[in-house]
Amino acid sequence: MVDVAAIFKAYDVRGVVPDQLDESVARATGAAFVEVLDVLASPGAVVVGYDMRPSSPALAAAFAEGVTSTGADVVDIGLASTDQLYFASGRLQLPGAMFTASHNPARYNGIKMCRAGASPVGTDSGLRDIADLVAKTVAEGPVPIAVPGKVARKNLLTAYADHLNDLVDLSGIRPLTVVVDAGNGMGGYTVPAVFASGPVTIIPLYFELDGNFPNHEANPLDPKNLVDLQAKVREVGADLGLAFDGDADRCFVIDEKGDPISPSAVTGAVAVRELAKHPGSAVIHNLITSRAVPELITEHGGTPVRARVGHSYIKQKMAETDAVFGGEHSAHYYFRDFWRADTGMLAALHVLAALGEQDKPASELFAAYERYVASGELNNKVDDAAATTAAIEDTFGDKPGITVDHLDGLTVSAPQWWFNVRASNTEPLLRLNVEAADRPTMERVRDEVLALITGASVEEN
Prior knowledge:
single chain; 461 residues; alpha/beta; Alpha-D-Glucose-1,6-Bisphosphate, Chain A, domain 3; 4 domains
């Protein structure tokens, strides 16, 4: 019997195929999705896409069978990146399901679901109810319907590329040479369409779609997966490097020297561009992006709004504030012009526009957005995250000039530094992020906090 609770996470479904996630679970999820979202009442159809993993087509087809078994229809867009699925949901105003396990290894697959207009489906917005129905169906079997729905196939790749190019026009920038590492993921499918014409010359790395990831994991957050891209950028003298994760909804940026540009710097740069088009708008940043981000937003006439880590919180804040843009430390970037959904491809176009509209190299251009020194995220194994967090607060909380808040875990701030510790939802870990005005201060604060996390083994991401 499949343990449904183990694969339904806070924001999506994720599990090993076929041990945890198989076609019967996908089929039950399709039927439950229709019932929980009341799809039959309106709009009567669901859009479905899938990535390049070997298990994805069959799982997506089973999900579609579950949808049509209720009488609802399916719009099958076939191979897609996750942001392409969000585009389809927004353009067609249909709820959607994307079959992908993002950056996870090949043995995994999963489902990212959204309401019409790419609005998220998470634990508190329907996912828990879907899980309950799936568990019931797996145990008792599905209820058949006399008149099933229909499946229509629709290719939206060109429309997706056209929409992005309408939002950021690169036709007037100087010629650029860009190395793109798709990691054998969906970037190998979408990048050629988005950059089919214009002044950007793409040098491809690992564009062959292969869900077994023969070259390296499609997880650019891990530095070892950037090594090939960095080497190629230096070898060919490229202006920039871009790395996409498996489902191509996140984008990481490498400068002409082969050095990573932090997602906070990208957030700052894109925020400045969006505020130039939409003066005075709100911009969302999560609480572990650099202090430079709210500073830049304010300096350019915008209103910085701080949010918890996680796409559901970012999208909720964007809706509440009508924010034009939102950025996270994990290289998720959200745009009001893209149904508040995250799209690494649109962020990449903004980065290329910012670079190509002036003559400085990327390293020099983005140095203006890198004002502080950060530790990167440190994962610390602990037996009791709550007790450890309380001990850290006891140590730092009463010091002069210190402020403390609990928006997401514990954030401790001083004039020259800040740090945040957050408990993982799925593992016995505390995640530590430290930032300071200079490296010695950052290292001192980092080491003081780590000393309080007794017995921890530390892994840098």
